[in-house]
Amino acid sequence: MASSTRRAALRALTDEIVACAACPRLVAWRHQVAQERRAAFRDEDYWGRPVPGFGDPDARVLVVGLAPAAHGGNRTGRVFTGDRSGDWLFGAMHRAGFANQPTSVRADDGLRLHDAYVAAAVRCAPPGNRPTNDERDQCLPYLVRELEILSRVRVFIALGAFAYDAIWRVLGIAGELLPRPRPRFGHGVEVSTTRGIVMGCFHPSQQNTFTGKLTVLMLDAVFERARVLANDEPASTGRS
After folding, report:
1. Per-residue pLDDT tens digits for 167-187
2. pTM
3. 3-231 is classed in which CATH architecture?
4. Domain-by-domain residue ranges, the chain?
5. Based on C-alpha coordinates, what's the Rg of the chain?
6. Which residues are CB-contacts of 38 (< 8 A; sequence separation ≥ 6)?
7. Burial of 187 (0-12, 13-18, 19+ CB in 10 A)
8. Which of 38, 91, 158, 203 could in theory staple to 102 by disulfide, Cβ–Cβ 3.0 to 4.6 A?
């Protein structure tokens, strides 16, 4: 698949994602947050809709998070944009050469990703940052289709156990061969599949970064390793 074809397919998928209203609880919550707003952002217009993935259509690295933050992606319209988790994520991606700048504060701030694409297992901000399994399963087809379009991806970074589970399910739906039993999620875990390497990484949430469960050095190591794995092309991938 040519780069231009991938780009057009991602645009079409983005339009579908943004128009989705499949989960009543999430629809109600994202609208409520967008109307009430946080005091610090009371003068801003919230996005208040599902948040699509974004990045390089030729990406070899796919980063998957849990869901948009209520006052981050749900406010700005771009995943991991405008919140502390995004500061950590894009800072690490910038240091590893996957992003042109280390910060992301709004959707039009000039951030561009190179060789990487970022998405979420669930596309709407959930109450308490806890989507249900049913809500996850409603959203999984979008990740399945992104995986089909992003045909060059061979490294998957799961930010947290929820994303790890989602990636595993998506690869299974895609018919990839997966090791059984499934290895447990852990920071730094690497699992080989017929599509590529799944890497585990603690989510850069404030709960993890404030407590030291995830440090800058730990996050940098994940993305440095991803860059090495992405450049270590197999003899034949069977994909284009």
Report:
1. 999 999 999 999 999 999 999
2. 0.95
3. 3-Layer(aba) Sandwich (3.40)
4. 3-231
5. 17
6. 71
7. middle
8. 91
